[in-house]
C-alpha cells in the first residue's frame, strides 16, 4: 500500500481486509460507521476488531432526543456485531464517555493493552487498520498518539469513508470549552507571538470560538477549496472562509483535505516561516485525513500545540448523509 491516499468506491471495498491484520473502529450515530461491514468479508481473515464507542458525545436538552440518538448508536452497533459474528471475527467493545477524560483514557489504554497482547500472541502481524471515519477528532488524536508510540514497527493503515453529503444547516452548535489535546500541549514562550492555524471545514461557530479564545497575534485560516474530498464540499468550505478574511491579522492558505501526506506537506510548507518566532496552535476542523496530517506535524514539531473545541450539540440526525467513497492511506513515520 502506498503512502499516497488511494480511493475506492463502496463496491470496490470488498477485499480491503486482505491488507489488515487488526482493525480499530468507532461506533457512532452516523451510518458511515457501518461501512466496515462492506469491506470485511472473508471469514477468519482479520485477527481481531476493536470497537470504540462514546456514550455522551452530544448534550441534549430533550430526554427523548437523547433516547433516539442512543437508539441509533445501538442499532449501528448491532448491525456491526451481527456482521462480525457472520464472518467469525473476534471483536471487543470498549465504551467511553467523550466528556470524561479519565474514562476515555481507561478505554484507550485498555484497547492498547489488549491489542498489544493480541499482537504478541499472533503470528505475522504487520498492519493495524484504523477506520477513522466516526471517531471524534479528540479521540482519534489521542488514539493515534498511543498507536504511533506503542507499535513503531507496525504499519498504521487509515481508512476514511466520505459521505455523500453533510447536513445543510449545521453540524455542531454551542460549545462547552476549548483545551489543548492530551499529548499535544506544545510549548509556550511568553516572549513570542502566538499563531493560530485553523484547518476549516463547513462550520463557522467553532472557528470563531478558537479565535475568541486564543486572541492570537496572527491567524492562518486554511481551506480545502482546491483539494477537497468532493468539489461541492470545497465550495462550501470556501464560503465559510470568506466570512473570516476581513480581519487584518487573518491570512488564507490552502491545504489538501483528501490526503494525509499532501496535507502534511502543505502544513509544513505553510508553517516553516513561523516555527522559530511563534507559539503555534493548530485547530484541525476539517476531514479526518487532514486531522491526521496535523497529528504528524505535531509529532515532527513537538513545540506545536493541537487544540480541540467541545461542541455542546451534534446534528446527529443529519450530520452525514450516505457514503460514496473510501480512502486508504498509511501513516508515514516523521523525523
Structure commentary:
The protein has helices at 36-39, 63-86, 101-121, 137-150, 205-214, 231-241, 260-271, 288-300; strands at 6-8, 22-27, 48-54, 91-96, 127-131, 155-162, 165-166, 172-180, 193-199, 218-227, 250-256, 278-284, 305-314, 320-321, 325-330. The two termini are 21 Å apart. The strands form 3 sheets. It has a 7-stranded mixed β-sheet, sandwiched between helices. Strands 8-13-12-9-10-11 form a 6-stranded mixed β-sheet, with helices on both faces. A two-stranded antiparallel sheet has the order 7-14. α8 links the parallel β12 and β13 (305-314). Helix content is 33%, strand content 28%. It has 2 domains: 6-165 and 320-330, Rossmann fold; 172-314, Rossmann fold (3-Layer(aba) Sandwich), CATH 3.40.50. The chain is α/β, with parallel strands linked by helices and 335 residues long. The protein contains 8 helices and 15 strands.
CATH topology of the largest domain: Rossmann fold
Provide the low-confidence segments as ranges: none
CA distance, first residue to last residue: 21 Å
One letter per element, helices H and strands E, the order comes to EEHEHEHEHEEEEHEHEHEHEEE
How large is the share of residues in beta strands? 25-35%
Strand order of the largest sheet: 1-15-6-5-2-3-4
**Helical fraction:** 25-40%
Topology:
Layout lengths: L5 E3 L13 E6 L8 H4 L8 E7 L8 H24 L4 E6 L4 H21 L5 E5 L5 H14 L4 E8 L2 E2 L5 E9 L12 E7 L5 H10 L3 E10 L3 H11 L8 E7 L3 H12 L6 E7 L3 H13 L4 E10 L5 E2 L3 E6 L5
Parallel strand pairs: 2-3, 2-5, 3-4, 5-6, 9-10, 9-12, 10-11, 12-13
Antiparallel strand pairs: 1-15, 6-15, 7-14, 8-13
Helix pairs in contact: 3-4, 4-8, 7-8
